[in-house]
Amino acid sequence: MITKMHVENMLQEYMDDTVESYRLIDNSWEDEYRYVAIVKTTSGEHIVLKCYNNSYTDSSKIAGWARLASVYRRNGIATPQFYCSKIGAYGSVITIGNKQFHYWAEEFMSAKTLDDLEIDLEDLGSEFLYQVGACVGSMHSAAKREGIEFTWSSPYVLLDPDEENYNDALTWYEKLRYSPADVRLVEEIWEIYNRKREYLEAIFPSLPAGGVQGDFSTNNILVNEEKGFAGIIDYNLAGNDKFVTYMMQEGIFLSFECYREEWLDREKCAYMEQRFKHYYIGYTQQYSLTDAERGAVTILYNIIRPFRMDKVDTTLRKAEEGLWQEVNERLRWMHYELTREDILAFLEN
C-alpha cells in the first residue's frame, strides 16, 4: 500500500531532503494499518516515518507523545526525538488508497532492540532489570515533576472499563466454576480476587497518575554492544496511568514472564522474585513512592501476577486437555500468589 512516492511526500513535510532508500515494516493486523519506514536521505541522514490508520492514533495524541518524549529526553532518558513538520505540527495526515493515515517523524536510534538481536531477557542478568527499573522510575519522576497528563488512558490500565486483567480473570472463573477442577478452590480464589479489587478501587484515587510510555516490551527496549540497557522506543500506546500500577505490570511481565519455559516451582519463582527485586530497587531509586503507592504494591502483585493472560490461557488450555491434576496444581499456585502478604517487605529489605 505504501509506495516510495508516499514516503517521499511524507518526508518532505518534515525536511527539505529526498529519499535515497528506505525499509518498510508492515505491522498491520486485523482492522488496523501500521507502517514504519526507516529512511536514508540523499544527504545521508536517517529518519523514521510512522504511518497509522487505526482507532487510537490522531494528531492530538501524536503531539502528546512528542511532548512526553521531549520531557524524557530533557531528563537524560535515551529515546527518539519527534520532529516538527514545516508548519509546526508533530502529526500530519495523508490519504492512501481511500484511507486516511496519521503520520509523524522520529529520530532514528542506532541501537537495536532485544528482539532485533534475538536476545532472550532471561539470558541477561539482574543488573539489566535494575537498569530497566531505573529508567521507568526516571520516566515517572519526570512526568510527575513536569505535570504530564493526558486525557486518554494507556491501553492496559487497571480498573478501566475494558481492562485485560479483569476480563482474563472473569473468563478463567466462568470456564472453571462448573468444571471437574477443585471448584471450592476456584470459588475461594474468585472471592479473594474480587475482594482485593474492591480494596484497590477504594484507594485508587489516592495513587499519583500521569503520562507513561505504555509498552515497555522486548521489541521496544534498546541494548548496547555490551548488552546493557540503552533506551526505549515506541509511543503509540502512551497515555495516562497510575505510576505504581504501570510499574508493577511492566515489572511483573519483564521479571516473571519473559522466559522460554514457564516456571511455577518455588525455587525458580524465588529466582524470578530476586530479578523483580532488582527492577523494583532501580525504580524506587529514581521515583519516590508515596505511602499510598507503597501500600498498594502487595495487592497489585496479588492481582496481577496470577492473572496475567498467559497464566490464565495456560490453565484453561490444560483444562481443555482434561489435565485436571495440573489444573489443580496451578490453582494452588494462584491461591498462594493471590494471598501473599510479604511482597513489599521482601522488595524493600
From TrEMBL:
A Pfam entry, by short name: APH
The entry's keywords: Transferase
UniProt-recorded name of the protein: Phosphotransferase enzyme family protein
Keyword Thylakoid: no
Upper taxonomic lineage: Bacteria, Bacillati, Bacillota, Bacilli, Bacillales
Domain of life: Bacteria
Keyword Transferase included in the entry's annotation: yes
A molecular-function term among this protein's GO annotations: transferase activity
Stretches assigned to the Aminoglycoside phosphotransferase domain: 39-241
Organism annotation: Paenibacillus alvei (Bacillus alvei)
